[in-house]
Amino acid sequence: MTQSEYARARAVSRQLVSRWKKQGRLVLTDDGRVDVQASDRVLQSVLDPTRGGDRTGKRAAAIDQAAADAGAVVTEDGQVMSLEEARRRELAARAVKQELEAAQLRGQLVSKEEVVRAAKDQGLKHMEQLRAVADRVAYQVHSAATAEEARRLLAAEMERIAAEFREGLRL
């Protein structure tokens, strides 16, 4: 990409690109063209993102258009890549998506919503069991001869509930 094309892609002036070149912030290929990815990495590491710049969104649109004009695309994180690289990444993402969909059809994956629903159901079930402990063991605790016996009865009931909870986690 030429320096002028790079200036358009970054939505900056040609003079600023020349200044970056003099400051050693622009990486050039042997034929004097801008190595976009290398230059972007250098600039990202040295420029302060909190100073200056267009905050209206026009700069991002200009970058996208300039990249498209130069046969490239801009990723969501602002990196410029060739259309070939973008297509390669898209194909790789589609392949991963197809693998995940196939795993879901085989029953190897479940949706987040199913997991959340099952967890809520288990939680509600065990909350109800805990609320019922007092009614279930009240007579036994009242009949206990000592505080230690009452504690043992309550501990046994809590362990029973915990065992059911552990079993529910293995679904």
Count of structural domains: 2
| Large-scale geometry | elongated
Q: Measured on Cα atoms, how large is the radius of gyration?
A: 32 Å
Q: What oligomeric arrangement do these chains adopt?
A: single chain
Tell me what portion of residues adopts beta-strand conformation.
under 5%
Q: List low-pLDDT spans.
A: none
Give the strand order, joined by hyphens, for the main sheet: 1-2
How many H/I helices?
Answer: 8
What about the largest sheet?
2 strands, antiparallel
How many E-type strands?
2
Q: Which class do the helix and strand fractions yield?
A: mainly alpha
Helix content: 55-70%
The helix/strand series, from N terminus to C terminus, equals HHHHEEHHHH
Care to describe what's here?
The chain folds into 2 domains: 3-80, no CATH class; 112-169. The mean pLDDT is 82. The chain has a two-stranded antiparallel ribbon. By secondary structure, the chain is mainly alpha-helical. The chain has 8 helices and 2 strands. The longest helix has 23 residues, at 83-105.
Task: Draw up the topology in text.
Blueprint: H1 3-10, H2 14-22, H3 36-46, H4 58-69, E1 72-74, E2 80-82, H5 83-105, H6 112-131, H7 133-143, H8 147-169
Antiparallel strand pairs: 1-2
Helix pairs in contact: 1-2, 1-4, 6-8, 7-8
Quick summary:
This protein has 171 residues and is mostly helical. Helix content is 68%, strand content 4%.
